[in-house]
Amino acid sequence: MKKLILDLDTGIDDTLAIAYALGSADEAELIGITGTYGNVAVPLGVRNSLAVLHLFGRDDVPVYPGVDHPLSYAADAPWAPSAGSVAVHGANGIGGAVLPDSPRDPETPGSAVDFIIDAARTYGEDLVIVPTGAMTTMATVLREAPDVKDSGAAITLMGGALTVPGNVSPCTEANISQDPEAADYLFRCGARTTMIGLDVTHQTALTREGTARWRALGTNAGDFLADMTDYYIDFYLANQPELKGCGLHDPLAVAAALDPDLVTTLGVNLKVDLDGAFRGRTIGDRDRLQDPDKTTRVAVGVDVPGFLARFMDRVTALASRH
After folding, report:
1. Dihedral, CA atoms, 265, 126, 157, 199, nearest 10 degrees?
2. If the chain, 322 residues long, is cut into consecutive pieces of 10 residues, what is the mean pLDDT of each piece?
3. What distance in Å separates the CA atoms of residue 38 and residue 317, rounded to the nearest whole number?
4. How far apart, in whole angstroms, are the C-alpha atoms of residue 205 and residue 117?
5. pTM score, two decimals?
6. Angle between helices 12-22 and 249-258 (to 10 degrees)
7. Which domains does the chain show, CATH number per domain?
């Protein structure tokens, strides 16, 4: 069975990604969650991850705080989420939904890097890592332990946009924008990655029909998921009404990591633009265009009905028990 690590900035879709991972226990063992920043700062994201795990009765899954600021920041420079991130996910990161604190504490601050390095060396090709926020922790892992890129561990990230506009600027996606230098390093260091970007995540949308199904369960988990996700749907209906629901960004990354056949991919040696008006753009690296070894697979197609059915079945079954 595969071992799974989620590297999250736990906002709304990250929470849904945790639920999907827990609902996929027959396919993969969630061995840990690491905390990055983006939707929220690391302490709040870690708090949310612990609380979600507690809600679903999984206090056995450790949560490790990661790097809490971009590579370009001074070590003591503060980081805070943008006004846009707060608008999308709410001040508490989970759409204002009420979720009690977990009774346990996270692991040692900054311990995510060592945890991921140890897991990659221990499990090798049996390990799947899914980063869904800033790529800083993953870049730090690969800088400190270059052997991780050759360990066989798979990295399936949610971020970027290759064939569609960005959601922060016309060319930049939110997770990449948090730390373009880290994402550029991840793509160019030789690590094998799969990019699940807006090209496919905006094709998958959850509507109020789905949240009504959760609310009808009459469980604490069902009510929480419905309250949280309805907030997310409201944001999307106001800002991207053409989607008719909320994008399932992070859950799709987890689903594709566990079953790559859900997506159709294109091999591209990527880079991230670091300067000027296109800072944060994910695009083919001109220096490696003729290199036949493509280190990144970019998802450009997705089995929408298959994914949505799987997502609803697994998350609903999980929520019905809690």
Report:
1. 20
2. 97 98 97 97 98 98 96 87 94 97 92 97 98 98 97 97 94 97 97 97 96 97 98 95 94 98 98 96 96 97 98 98 96
3. 29
4. 34
5. 0.97
6. 30
7. 2-320 (3.90.245.10)
